[in-house]
Design goal:
Blueprint lengths: L2 E8 L6 E6 L2 E7 H4 L7 E2 L1 H24 L6 H10 L4 H13 L5 H15 L4 H10 L4 H8 L4 H13 L7 H14 L4 H22 L1
Antiparallel strand pairs: 1-2, 1-4, 2-3
Length: about 210
């Protein structure tokens, strides 16, 4: 059964949405972008109405996803989880993720690279900890391996140790080794890497101390 569009009015509280009136009565609301193809006097049937409402839900979900991404880069799994919290249907979420991929707005490979770079610059982590963090973000193992393939754990462990060692510079060797070792292990560096780094940092501290005497 066809019905005629008798009015298209922007909503007062949200100008980005349009109220659609059919045969003189309010029928449903649509996002402005979805309603852009409609005009007063146009006849639409039930199937067209259904398609408009599906397109509207996808557009609303897409805008929610864009807002979620505006704070920081996200993995696909994070975007998916956020949309589920807003009770969007799985098929709508799949369409939104696909649209965002096509527009280069989400990429697990780019996200993983950014995550590792950020950690390396500000809070260095070992390979195992980075793997765990990325898995928690929903990143697949093949992407994780690609991103961590050339990770220089020794350089990262040294960077982390230098910064943390300032807190322990008044300690004697046994306590210094124990505390800095525990710190590096918590950061995901296994002792095969942490041990030599601890000795190196201690030796550099002693050299500096002797030079300053």
């Amino acid at each position: 059964m066809e019905r005629k569009i008798t009015a298209l009015q922007a909503q007062k509280r949200n100008p980005q949405r349009v109220n659609v009136y059919l045969d003189g009565e309010f029928a449903f609301g649509l996002s402005r972008i979805t309603a852009a193809w409609l005009s007063v006097g146009q006849a639409i049937d039930d199937e067209k109405i259904r398609k408009l409402q599906v397109a509207d839900e996808e557009e609303v979900a897409y805008q929610k996803a864009l807002h979620f991404l505006s704070y920081r880069p996200r993995s696909e799994n994070e975007v998916r989880g956020n949309l589920r919290k807003h009770n969007f249907l799985d098929e709508v979420i799949l369409d939104v993720i696909d649209r965002m991929r096509q527009n280069h707005l989400v990429s697990d490979l780019d996200f993983a690279r950014s995550w590792v770079e950020n950690r390396s610059d500000f809070r260095p982590r070992g390979r195992q900890t980075l793997k765990l963090e990325l898995r928690q973000k929903g990143i697949t193992d093949d992407v994780i391996e690609a991103v961590l393939d050339n990770l220089d754990e020794e350089a990262l462990a040294y960077q982390a140790a230098i910064k943390q060692s300032r807190k322990y510079e008044q300690l004697d060797w046994p306590d210094f080794r124990q505390k800095l070792g525990a710190f590096l292990v918590r950061r995901g560096f296994h002792y095969g890497i942490a041990g030599p780094i601890i000795k190196k940092v201690w030796a550099e501290m002693q050299t500096t101390y002797e030079t300053e005497k």
